[in-house]
Amino acid sequence: MTIKVIIVDDQAMVRAGFAALLAAQSDIDVVGEAPDGREGVRVSRRTHPDVVLMDVRMPEMDGLAAARQLLDPPRGVTHRPKVLMLTTFDVDDYVYEALRAGASGFLLKDAPPADLISAVRVVAAGEALLAPSVTRRLIADFARQRPAPRRGGPALLRGQLTPRETEVLELIARGLSNQEIAESLVLAEQTVKTHIGRVLAKLGLRDRAQAVIFAYESGLVTPGAQ
Q: Which of 179, 184, 178, 172 has its CA nearest to residue 210?
């Protein structure tokens, strides 16, 4: 099945480069592009892409505002694409807010071509793209700046999740990959995936990205703690 993608970035060279790279893949079809968030929303409404590559900083409407419109559309609009934010470290705070809004992850704009192709496929398949090494730095840094955790958060989790599921959620939030979680808990990787699916279902979360945010905001994980 072909993955339909649109590219939203205010730099024409970036759009052209990404489009050429993705269009060369037999399973990816670039169906549109836009120079700002407002136009990106319009193109998305018209073309119904599976994945939107969304730059963070753009004129007219930035990527965060555009992502919110795509992921929480007005009544009557049923299409909700997966949104993959394109970023650099100097705009990480926007990425944090985008993840809270429901974006499926982020990708550094200077990532290798193979990473971009893989990211599109991962997000299209319904997975969240959170590089473990970046997750540890990114989420913990911003969680320090957020309001105090929800009152009774960890206790409430104990009422919803099994002890094993709580362990898995904590390790996700600490930036471990499925393989690393499996090794840490001495489980099969498929078992870890099953636990993650149950955690998402029980907590009403869309994907791994939202699970990371939830774990910090609930107080299950304390920023900076090991």
A: 172
Distance between CA atoms of 112 and 93, rounded to whole angstroms?
23
Q: Which of 129, 125, 155 is nearest to 50 (CA)?
A: 125
CA pair distance 106, 87, nearest whole angstrom: 7
pLDDT in tens, 18-39: 999 999 999 999 999 999 999 9
Query: Predicted confidence band at 133 (pLDDT cuts at 50, 70, 90)?
Result: low
pTM recorded for the entire structure: 0.73
Q: DSSP letters of 35-68?
A: SSHHHHHHHHHHH--SEEEEESS-SSS-HHHHHH
Which residue matches tokens 């949104």? 83
Amino acid at 165: E
What does the angle CA 223 – CA 179 – CA 22 come to, to the nearest 5 degrees?
90
